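Second attempt. The first submission of D-alanyl-D-alanine carboxypeptidase had a stray character pasted in from the spreadsheet, which I only caught after the job came back as garbage. Lesson logged: always re-copy from the clean sequence file. Corrected sequence (423 aa) follows.
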Amino acid sequence: MRSKLNIYFTFIVMLMLGSGCKSSKTEKKINKTFDTSFYNNQFTGFLVYNPKTKDTIYQHHAGKYFTPASNTKIFTLYTALNLLPHSIPAFKYAVKNDTLTIVATGNPAFLHTYFKDSTALNMAKHYKHINIVDQNLTDDKFGPGWAWEDYDTYFSAERSAFPTYGNVVTISNLDSLIATPRVFKNDIVITSNNKRRAFNDNTFFYKQNTIDSVEIPMVINRMTSEKIWADLLPNKVSFTNNIPSALKTVYSIPSDSLYKRMMHESDNFLAEQMLIMASSTLSDTLSSGKVRTFILKNQLKTLSEKPRWVDGSGLSRYNLFTPKSFVHVLSNLYEAFPKNRLFNLFPAGGASGTLKKWYAGDNEPYIYAKSGTVGNNYALSGYLITNKGETLIFSFMNNHYTKPTSEVKQNMQSIFEWLRDTY
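This time the job returned cleanly.
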């Protein structure tokens, strides 16, 4: 009996010593990298965690706050996965006699050029009168801290309660100019102007000799909505602020298709609308601020460092998150959802989305993560698969560097490959 106990004790000690040696080796290797001159004039945070053993493998400024850029979308994904069902809530509705009242839920897929969700339009065709409630959003059209000069860029589409066509006008030049939605064709001006739209007006500029399609954000207001719906359902649509009681919900496209597009393309519009749509599960009044507060007070109440979380996309430099916070959320996701489903939602290194040109594996991807880039800041948080089949969860954040972002990525990739090959 004693010999068996001795063998068992020896085995446990060997495991502990092996783990300790491995952690010590990792710490020395990464510390040596961070001690080089490359990292002298920037702020860097890094945390690596093993969810199987519950061990912190390495940490460097893991509790410090950083500008996360699009890493913020990890929190948005977490919110959506916790609050939204398997199919997105396209809209809420009530019927009285021959009148259908549609209440907006923030659904970004309606008539979107990629998703082509026409659920609301198909249902509305069967009624004589349509009332639309689309003023139930408390958020401003732009998030706090967004760059005002980006108003005409595709990645800065306005937020709204009832988006149509992704809240952008898509202009193509084939044999002639084609506008989607078509009601804005006469609002396009051929010009040499570098701006793509008038500052606060739906006059769109298309450069001479352009052959590529361009997406230009619309100015979203009641006039815009009336113009689009008058074309979709002539003489049938009115707008109201009165929300009926006893609403029912109609669902449309699979939620994962929306999540994957948001994460792989780092789509800011989808991220913003996803938080708004999540808020529709809490109330008929839409508010991304309320849903962020709800998640932090409930599902994420055990976060050790509460983030300053001001939008869904990460466009705002007001956002502040720690590597610990990202690893916490990524760990929760890893425990709650099947690995195949979860990893499918994240870009794969060397294979898909924003990581297609970086962090490639030898035969298959070993990094599944979300990147975040805004001037002089780059972050990457997600999952790393080692050669031994271990899944590690990490968050690597770089702020205020003046070197090319490609050099920052190269240094990160060296560390990731070392972890993959040696852990």
